[in-house]
Amino acid sequence: MKTCINPERTKALLDHYRQAAPGITLRPPDIGHLPGTPQEYAREWERLIGLPEQNEKRFFTALENPLPVYLGEVKRENGEWLFVWSNSYDLQGDDIAYHFQISQTPDFAKPVVEQVPCVYGRGRIEQRLNGIR
Predict the structure, then answer these.
(1) In whole angstroms, what is the distance from residue 67 CA to residue 74 CA?
(2) pLDDT above 60: residue 114
(3) Cα–Cα dist 82/99, whole Å
(4) Looking at CB atoms within 10 Å, which of 13, 80, 81, 107 has the fewest?
């Protein structure tokens, strides 16, 4: 992949595009409708050169964490609180365990409920709690 998408190749492609694009977009009528200034566009061209490497680093960092989950609306059923969330997926195939916490503070310094691990599994996941106000 690095042989076809790298800073040198990106710069070469941008240099090729620069031969035509600014001459068209940075003059009337386009220049009057574009957000930003010609100087900002010049900086953006330079920023694009390093984006493939930055995105590759972000991708490999993301591989170390499971994908986010959808948190459903908390419901009250038969005197219990029902928490529902979708199952996450780990791109490397690692097992996922859920650490379930409820807290009255955003920093979760003193959880009201804590279950570790609360569930393993696939598909829709439910956690029922009793005795919480």
Answers:
(1) 21
(2) yes
(3) 16
(4) 107
DSSP character at residue 121: -
Sheet order of strands, 80-85 included: 75-77, 80-85, 125-130
Provide the whole-model pTM.
Answer: 0.57
Does an H or E element contain 81, and which? Answer: strand 80-85
**In which residue are the tokens 């529902």 written?**
84
d(CA 51, CA 61): 15
CA-to-CA distance for 131 and 81, rounded, in angstroms? 9
Instruction: Please report, as a single letter, which amino acid is at residue 126.
Output: E
Torsion of CA 20, 23, 26, 32, to 10 degrees: -110
Q: Which of 62, 58, 85 is nearest to 73 (CA)?
A: 85
- Residue that the structure tokens 């190749």 belong to: 9
Determine the Cα–Cα distance for residues 1 and 4; give it in Å rounded to an integer: 6
Q: How confident is the model over 22-67, as pLDDT tens digits?
A: 888 888 898 888 888 888 988 998 999 999 999 999 999 988 888 8
What is d(CA 112, CA 60) in angstroms, rounded to the nearest whole number? Answer: 35
